[in-house]
Design goal:
heterodimer, A: mainly beta, Jelly Rolls, 5-stranded mixed β-sheet, 5-stranded antiparallel β-sheet, globular, B: mainly beta, 1 helix, 12 strands
Chain lengths: 188, 211
């Protein structure tokens, strides 16, 4: 049996790595996209031993890029170094939206830190809308060799209940560091 | 059948009466599950103070904190006074927005506003859909109350909007007005919705014609 290969596939195969046929990073800040870089993934229950998705049945992921986080105040500096990573000198936040009743097992923090002694901070916080605040999960990065990810497990699985509160992911960092994303590991 | 052997009709009536009397007493003695005004009501009635959270019904909810909203204009300045709330501090555009992502077919019923209001101004939240061609529809709005002071919550009237990701995008927009101090804070919104029917077996109710 002879299979026909579409011409576009041939073109992509021949020139794909050198010819920017497809959309590139939507950046105009002059920074090169952070691709093909060395990336250290610290182990965690959200990863199989070979670094692939965790094999346990029923668990899912919600992966949010750092550049999707927004500044919590208008007075802070925000910049985009590229690669989906953001920097800000104050907190960056985004709403955590999961299926109601989902159970959060933990959050993997993706960040960039090249030699700085300070950490990138992670917070999963619940707000009641009436002044109540509760940090359900916190974490501080420990790697400083460039791009890395670390998993922070909830002490007990966190049941999502939007009838009772909102959930916000927050990152803090220092100059030279970047938030590249957070990946929530949960059971629907 | 020997179950009722020996039980006369008179005894049966007496036993039933005693059972009903017991139920009546128990109904007064047991603590009420819902707050006053909550129940009994039509689960979708807006007359109750907790109409978006009635006892015994299962709305789905999406709660978005105020601190995750962003201004529509970069000249708008704002601060974070804490507890998931934001305050506008300057600028002429008073609006902050957040996208709403819900499954197709979801029926949105209520918009609940959370705020802190010790000011003469008000914060108002809108549930708005956009067709991408410059047209929009504000399906519901709800404003803060100056009366109580401090943290408060308000509920929109009952409305019905079916989520259609093919046809329209949805935002919740909060307008914080000209009160540029932390005496007025937007703390978030909670959307109450009926989840779409995914079990197609009962989508058209039971088939009255037996197989």
């Amino acid at each position: 049996m002879v299979k026909k290969i579409p011409g576009v596939v041939v073109v992509a195969a021949l020139f794909g790595s050198h010819f920017p046929v497809f959309a590139t990073e939507a950046t105009s800040d002059g920074f090169p996209p952070a691709q093909n870089v060395s990336y250290y993934h610290a182990p965690g229950p959200d990863l199989a031993s070979d670094g692939s998705a965790a094999p346990s049945g029923g668990t899912q992921y919600l992966f949010l890029a750092g550049s999707a986080f927004t500044p919590r105040t208008s007075s802070q500096t925000v910049s985009y170094p590229g690669g989906g990573c953001s920097f800000s000198d104050n907190a960056l936040t985004t709403s955590l939206e999961l299926p109601e009743g989902a159970t959060v097992q933990g959050v993997r923090l993706y960040y960039y830190n090249n030699g700085l002694p300070s950490s990138v901070g992670l917070f999963l916080t619940a707000y009641t809308g009436a002044g109540g605040t509760s940090d359900l999960l916190t974490g501080s990065s420990s790697e400083d060799t460039g791009y890395a990810s670390e998993y922070f497990a909830a002490s007990t699985p966190l049941s999502i209940d939007y009838a009772g509160q909102s959930y916000v992911l927050t990152a803090t960092m220092n100059s030279g560091q970047r938030l590249c994303g957070m990946r929530v590991f949960y059971s629907p | 059948m020997t179950i009722n052997k020996g039980v006369t009709p008179l005894r049966r009536i007496a036993a039933l009466s005693a059972a009903w009397l017991g139920l009546l007493i128990a109904s007064f003695a047991l603590p009420a599950v819902a707050a006053p005004g909550d129940h009994p009501v039509d689960p979708h009635s807006a007359q109750s103070a907790q109409a978006d959270q009635p006892a015994g019904t299962l709305f789905g909810y999406l709660w978005i904190a105020g601190s995750t909203f962003h201004p529509l204009d970069n000249a708008t300045t704002y601060s974070y006074p804490g507890n998931g709330c934001i305050s506008k501090t300057g600028g002429t555009d008073n609006r902050f927005a957040h996208k709403v992502v819900l499954p197709e077919g979801t029926l949105v019923r209520y918009l609940r506003l959370y705020y802190f209001d010790d000011s003469t101004g008000t914060v108002t939240a809108y549930f708005t859909s956009y067709d991408g061609a410059g047209n929009f529809v504000e399906h519901a709005s709800v404003g803060s109350s100056n009366g109580a002071g401090g943290y408060g919550t308000s509920l929109s009237p009952l409305f019905s909007y079916e989520v259609d990701p093919f046809g329209a995008a949805i935002n919740v927009v909060a307008n914080l007005g000209d009160q540029n101090t932390s005496t007025l804070r937007f703390c978030g919104v909670r959307i109450a919705y009926d989840a779409p029917i995914t079990d197609r077996i009962f989508a058209d109710d039971f088939d009255p014609i037996p197989l």
